[in-house]
Amino acid sequence: MVRWTVVESSYGGGGHGFARIVPRDGGGSRLHAELVNTELRRQKLMLTLLHLVPDRMVARMWTAALDRYALTHDT
Predict the structure, then answer these.
(1) 1: closest CA among 27, 25, 34?
(2) Whole domain around residue 52: which residue ranges?
(3) How confident is the model at residue 25, as a pLDDT?
């Protein structure tokens, strides 16, 4: 599990979160990620945006980011 703290960002202020990757039966893996935004004024905007973005799009973004990381870092 990876945990993080966001001090400041261009998309939603501060917050914290985590990501956990677990193997799937038969191969592959499953990613579970959570982010908690701590700036109340930006939470409404973020919730609105998240309802407009399909889950598959978010999953593809995470997949692309983790694939790029895997290509540039030794395991």
Answers:
(1) 34
(2) 2-72
(3) 92
